[in-house]
Design goal:
2 domains; Rossmann fold; 9-stranded mixed beta sheet; binds adenosine-5'-diphosphate; alpha/beta; GMP Synthetase, Chain A, domain 3
Length: 363
């Protein structure tokens, strides 16, 4: 004899692969009948022809079979009607009147962490991806928005590709390494050069904040383009509570970059949370000696200029680049590495609001 509550609990372990939540929370379990050792479940898919139907069906059957006393499982698949879908969207977004995303709520609990740099190539996207995953590893609900319109590298680093699913006029982020990922690059043709002009940028940023079906996030981490152009400006205007992290290499950190970032933050009321020094030092895999390839002290100088803490020094490790190229950030690919440890320290500093000075961060 199988017990209905145990079957329900088993179903609660099954997540919708795209929405990342238990099917029981999403009201996808339409009917559940338990008759001795026989179980009948009807599951409502969110859309007709859902590409993941087979997987959901398989996961449901497998979960139910783990319940003691179950001998036979029958899974029937149905499809939600418009009303049920609307209810689902409302449920995911929280108690917000449509179509406003809860991100715009002045009391929203989501902290927006915008990751900036003075120029390209300093590892801003690498830091963004690893920070997002490290925050998720700590148990936070995390979204990652790739807004680096001059080169969308987040999809490669996170191992995802578009296009995302569109669901009741909302764009569903793609789950990767426990993070909800959305790239503005998903919606443009691959390798098509796009000339983004000011109004178009602010429209696109607005759309990505509003129309993406972000769950109730603890953190939305945003990969900004280098510099202080229209994207960070639009973000700051729309989400004045945003906080900024500035990524630099020891050598790049110039007083002028810090000055520009500081001036920008002041003008837009964004709070600068701190500085991250990337490619800080190189530990020779052969002799163990630490080599300061790009010099030292740049992060500290920039932090001092901005009067914010230096939150982390991420070492230069070939494994960081390899992991990124393979679509698995280093905090997942090699959690025991020095750089993964540094990224976790960064995530912890960000999570606590970085109000205190961090512990001495070892490269
Ligand atoms: P940005 O976003 O600033 O343009 P990326 O994050 O794309 O920079 O990084 C540029 C290149 O440097 C990438 O190939 C990336 O894998 C590599 N990289 C970034 N940080 C590190 C690091 N700490 N160690 C080794 N390689 C790194």
């Amino acid at each position: 004899m199988a017990d209905r509550d145990s079957v329900w609990q088993a179903l609660a372990q099954v997540k919708d692969p795209e929405l990342g939540r238990p099917i029981t929370d999403l009201d996808m379990v339409r009917r559940l009948e338990v008759d001795g050792g026989r179980v009948f479940v009807e599951i409502l898919l969110t859309v007709q022809g859902c590409p993941l139907a087979t997987r959901i069906e398989r996961d449901v059957a497998a979960a139910v079979r783990t319940v003691p006393g179950v001998r036979e499982v029958e899974v029937k698949l149905g499809v939600m009607n418009d009303e049920q879908r609307e209810a689902l969207v409302r449920k995911i977004r929280g108690p917000q009147p449509e179509p406003k995303s809860s991100l715009f709520d002045p009391d929203s609990r989501t902290r927006v962490i915008a990751v900036a740099s003075g120029k390209g190539g300093v590892g801003k996207s690498t830091v963004t991806a690893n920070l997002a995953v490290a925050l998720a590893q700590e148990g936070h609900q995390v979204g990652l928005l790739d807004a680096d319109i001059y080169g969308f590298s987040i999809p490669t680093m996170m191992g995802v590709s578009g296009p995302p699913r569109v669901f009741n006029r909302a764009i569903v982020p793609i789950d990767a390494h426990g993070v909800q990922v959305m790239s503005m690059g998903f919606l443009i043709e691959r390798d098509t050069p796009v000339i983004w002009r000011g109004p178009m940028i602010s429209g696109a940023v607005e759309q990505f904040l509003r129309d993406v079906l972000w769950a109730d996030l603890d953190f939305l981490v945003v990969d900004l383009p280098p510099g202080t152009g229209d994207v960070p400006l639009s973000l700051a205007q729309r989400l004045p509570r945003s906080e900024m992290l500035v990524v630099t290499t020891p050598q790049e950190a110039s007083v002028s970059v810090a000055k520009r970032a500081g001036y920008f933050a002041e003008k837009t009321n964004m709070r600068v949370l701190g500085v991250v020094e990337n490619m800080a030092s190189f530990v020779c895999p052969h002799c163990g000696e630490t080599v300061e390839i790009f010099g030292a002290g740049g992060g500290e100088r920039m932090a001092a200029e901005l009067e914010v803490p230096l939150l982390a020094r991420i070492p230069l490790e070939p494994a960081v680049r390899r992991a990124s190229d393979e679509g698995t950030p280093i905090v997942v690919a090699a959690p025991e590495s020095a750089s993964a440890a540094a990224f976790r320290e960064l995530a912890q500093a960000v999570a606590r609001g970085a109000k205190r000075e961090p512990r001495a961060v070892k490269a």
